[in-house]
Write a structure and sequence with these properties.
With 319 residues, the protein is α/β, with parallel strands linked by helices. It has a single domain, classed as TIM Barrel (Alpha-Beta Barrel), CATH 3.20.20.140. The protein is 50% helix and 13% strand. The longest helix is centred in the N-terminal third of the chain and has 21 residues. The two termini are 17 Å apart.
Length: 319
């Protein structure tokens, strides 16, 4: 790793923020789901984020609204939440030049509202991408109803950051593991399958999709997914092949550098230039991802790409 690379610092593509107005609007929902999450949200601040970034060599963080996002079933509420969050994040980006970019959250089931917010976020606020959840109301992103949104994102050659959640149907499962441990990795796989099998990834090739946590469960089942190509309806939608389509996706390594199995799986699938640094701050300390690299014995060129160079190609204003 060169001195110049160290001096420029890492780009964290998976870094959450919680505007006070968002928390106040959804206080009852958050407190009802997890008192621990509420504490994390209320303790977050740009100053605390920068302190941690500086401590661990992160030059820039591309921020997103953490779970549960901005969709709670009411389009009017969603439009107000996403607009308030986007203006807050744009203001934070302006207040701390070079330190923060942001993904504009979309309430995907509200297609008309999403299209309006895409226009405002990119043309007025200069967003660096958009943020989707892996599912909404037990519907996944490849749903045909959402196609106008992806058509517009493709026209804009947008970066689409997709963060996992737990579908309502899975929250009732009594496995002993909380949703963030078991359901998030599997919903990541469901969302990717939805986008690939529907043909969305193949049709809209100018979208740069980023998925979190080294792809969750998807890398391990990628070859099983590839078997779907034997069905003519799938082969027509994904003419390049399932695995080839999967290789066009990007992945951050949040919560994964401490897991050699996860790193081995995603390295076996994704091109090295499609892997990026992600922390999942403030849910996970930035130190966790940084220290994980120390035990992986990865080539220096690969680490340099993950730390900064790969993200800099997607977000050239921070290059």
């Amino acid at each position: 790793m060169t001195a110049e690379h160290v001096h420029k610092g890492r780009i964290d593509v998976h870094h959450h923020c919680y505007p006070a107005k968002w928390f106040e609007a959804k206080r009852d929902f958050v407190l009802g789901s997890s008192a621990n999450s509420a504490g994390i949200m209320t303790e977050w601040s740009p100053a605390r984020a920068i302190e941690q970034m500086d401590r661990h060599g992160v030059a820039t963080s591309i921020v997103s609204i953490g779970n549960p996002g901005v969709w709670f079933g009411d389009p009017a509420e969603a439009r107000a939440l996403q607009r308030g969050c986007n203006e807050f994040m744009a203001g934070m980006s302006g207040d701390f030049p070079g330190r923060f970019g942001f993904y504009a959250p979309l309430a995907l089931p509200d297609v008309e509202g999403s299209l309006r917010e895409i226009e405002y976020a990119f043309d007025v606020l200069k967003a660096d991408g958009v943020h989707l959840m892996t599912s909404y109301d037990e519907r996944w992103p490849g749903d045909a109803a959402f196609e106008p949104v992806f058509e517009e994102l493709n026209r804009r050659k947008a970066v689409v950051f997709t963060h996992p959640t737990a579908p309502d149907v899975c929250k009732a499962f009594k496995t002993g593991a909380p949703p963030s441990i078991l359901e998030f990795p599997f919903d990541e796989a469901r969302a990717i399958a939805s986008l690939v099998f529907s043909g969305t990834v193949s049709k809209y090739r100018d979208i740069k999709f980023i998925f979190t946590h080294a792809g969750g469960a998807m890398p391990v089942i990628s070859e099983r997914m590839g078997q779907m190509a034997r069905y003519s309806n799938v082969a027509e939608r994904v003419p390049e092949g399932i695995v080839a389509a999967l290789k066009t996706l990007y992945f951050d390594l949040a919560n994964s550098t401490v897991n050699p199995c996860a790193i081995a799986a995603i390295r076996a699938l994704a091109p090295p230039e499609h892997l990026m640094f992600g922390s999942d701050f403030p849910y996970v300390g930035i130190a966790s991802t940084v220290r994980g690299f120390e035990h992986l014995d990865l080539p220096a060129a690969l680490v340099a790409g993950i730390d900064r160079d790969n993200a800099a190609r997607l977000f050239p204003r921070f290059a």
